[in-house]
Specification:
- This protein is an alpha+beta fold.
- The chain is built from five helices and seven strands.
- It has a seven-stranded mixed sheet with strand order 1-2-3-4-5-7-6, sandwiched between helices.
- Helix 4 (93-107) links the parallel strand 4 and strand 5 (115-120).
Length: 157
Amino acid sequence: MIRLRPATIADADLLLDWANDPVTRAAGFHREVIGPATHRRWLADRLASSRGRLYVGLDADNRPIGQLRLDGAPDGRVEIGIAVAPTERGRGIGHELLRAGMEVGLADPDLAVSVFVARIRPENEASIALFTGAGFLYVASDEVHGERALVYELSTG
């Protein structure tokens, strides 16, 4: 069983290491390596956001095992993103992070979630399997930063 704790600026180096992992970069919509200054600015902005949430997933021993991002819109659509720590891949952590993230998102009155949204690169078979396995349905093709994205949604109503 994992638990989520809100990320802090003290997590900057850990989150940057995970973000710059080659597998993570290949699965994302930004392929280039992220510099420390750029990452710290992004993290500070993220932590100050009233509609965005960032969590660090912890295992039973309080070891960081991944991160979860929620980006809320005023209409209740909340985009969810997950990154599993490189050392934890292949152990079902993504499923646990997704479950915990949806629970925390639904419990957050400021997000007022009506629909969870996942945007996934077409070749990211692991993420497609993760989200469809959780009940997300393919609804459209989109573009994110010039890259094709498959859009999956899960209604909460």
